[in-house]
Specification:
about 450 residues; Cytochrome Bc1 Complex, Chain A, domain 1
Length: about 450
């Protein structure tokens, strides 16, 4: 019996080159036919990441991902490597807040073998004790590097300000005490609990046949228990200022953010346009003002980090401790200006930048798969390229202005790490809490947070 006989539904697949099938156990299969390619990308996405973990489990998804290629019930670590490299395959994996993913890329004729290998790894990894002890040390080295990186520290502080006790506040890598404590049994129990058909998407992009791919996925994943979809509650997004003085640093790193709409909000595209307009490219207001005109920073960025349960408008910058106040003042003034009016030429630039970025992503097989998987997890369908383009084109200057207005009406979240001057926190609290359009010192009170 083939995969088509096992399908229970076929969600809307968006573009004509995209096919979605659903196995009886809930595993979804996305096939993106790209006949002009000679290689194939195969990815398995599991809807479990750091936001699904309890405090006691924090970091376990990342450890499982690190251990994925260390041996299965039928192949030890060396055999896993040999089987992949014999086919010339590139193998990788990553963990994020909302998912864990496993990837293989290689010759198109080996697509079925890649699916079988990933099915074995995802479902039958044995997490050998000796391999776990070695990989534990690797992860602890990774954690130590993060703990010495001021920008990484600022990012972690920012998440804590925004999300408080919600799992989104915790870093993907987890807590040191957990990394040191996790056992083989812990990993096996977590996989058994979290890795189920209702939470798995297998994506394939390349010169492939969708029916043959579905059959291969059925063979590799058809026995996986169905389980139920993992739900996540929305965080209560807060605000505040938090600082961390890092010895040995000459620079100060800041992460400033405001809440914006989620992926389920009708106007979530306006948040993406607002971030692009504000800070993407050297001609953007952010970069033009604080780098090109005033030379206050070398690095700065602005992004809309939008998920299904929350969204954040995030500005990052690195500067000297002596110029930190000036950078924050300049950024807040720019935000106020955009809450008053949005420039038409800036809106045109932002739309075109997003269009080019999306086109570039569509030309990369892995990004096509990743975007399709996110759509299925969030919306239950794959949105077409035409729909995405139309949504961006429909964003008006008024909608973008209103994004900035809502941001300035909400509490700011500001995290700063690195070299700090005396009294930095109090000055920053005063600056980010100022009423829009008013001089520093005239604002509402904002929550103090100890670093």
């Amino acid at each position: 019996m083939n995969a088509r006989d096992h399908s229970t539904a076929k969600p809307a697949a968006g573009d004509a080159d995209t096919t979605v099938a659903v196995l009886a156990n809930g595993v979804r299969v996305v096939t993106i036919r790209q006949p002009h390619l000679a290689s194939v990308c195969v990815s398995v996405f599991v809807r479990t990441g750091s936001r699904h973990e309890s405090a006691r489990d924090s970091g376990i998804s990342h450890v499982i991902e690190h251990m994925a290629f260390k041996g299965t019930a039928t192949r030890d670590c060396q055999q896993v490597n040999l089987d992949a490299e014999r086919l010339g395959a590139e193998v990788n994996a990553h963990t994020d807040k909302d998912h864990t993913a496993y990837h293989m890329r290689g010759l198109a004729q080996h697509a079925g073998q890649f699916i079988a290998m990933l099915g074995d790894i995802v479902q039958h990894s044995t997490f050998p004790e000796a391999e776990l002890e070695r990989e534990r040390q690797v992860i602890l080295h990774e954690l130590a590097e993060d703990e010495e990186d001021a920008l990484a520290i600022a990012s972690r502080l920012f998440d804590r300000i925004c999300f408080g006790t919600h799992p989104l506040a915790r870093p993907v890598i987890g807590a040191r005490r957990n990394i040191e404590r996790f056992t083989r049994a812990d990993l096996q129990a977590y996989v058994q609990r979290q890795y189920s058909g209702a939470n798995v998407i297998v994506g394939v992009a390349g010169p492939v046949d969708s029916e043959k791919i579905a059959d291969a996925v059925q063979a590799a994943f058809g026995a996986m228990p169905r389980g139920s979809e993992h739900a996540v509650t929305a965080p209560a997004v807060g605000g505040g200022v938090r600082t961390h003085r890092q010895t040995g640093c000459s620079q100060t790193h800041m992460v400033l953010g405001f809440p914006i709409g989620t992926l389920h909000d009708d106007d979530h595209a306006a948040g993406s346009v607002a971030a692009t307009l504000f800070g993407e490219g050297m001609s953007s207001p952010l970069m033009d003002e604080i780098r090109e005109r005033r030379g206050l920073v070398y690095y700065a960025s602005c992004t809309a980090e939008v998920m299904d349960v929350c969204g954040q408008f995030v500005i990052e910058a690195s500067t000297s401790p002596a110029q930190l106040d000036e950078v924050v003042d300049a950024v807040m003034r720019l935000l106020d200006a955009h809450a008053a009016a949005v420039d038409a030429s800036g809106l045109e630039r932002a739309r075109n930048q997003i269009a080019v970025r999306n086109l570039g992503a569509q030309e990369r097989p892995f990004r096509r798969i990743e975007d399709a998987a996110q759509d299925l997890f969030v919306f239950g369908r794959v949105r077409s390229r035409a729909e995405l383009a139309a949504r961006i084109d429909a964003v008006t200057a008024t909608q973008v202005r209103d994004v900035f207005r809502r941001m300035r009406a909400a509490p700011a979240s500001l995290a700063v790490a690195g070299a700090l001057r005396s009294g930095a926190r109090d000055r920053l609290i005063e600056r980010v809490s100022a009423t829009p359009g008013a001089p520093v010192g005239s604002g509402r009170r904002i929550r103090r947070m100890r670093g």
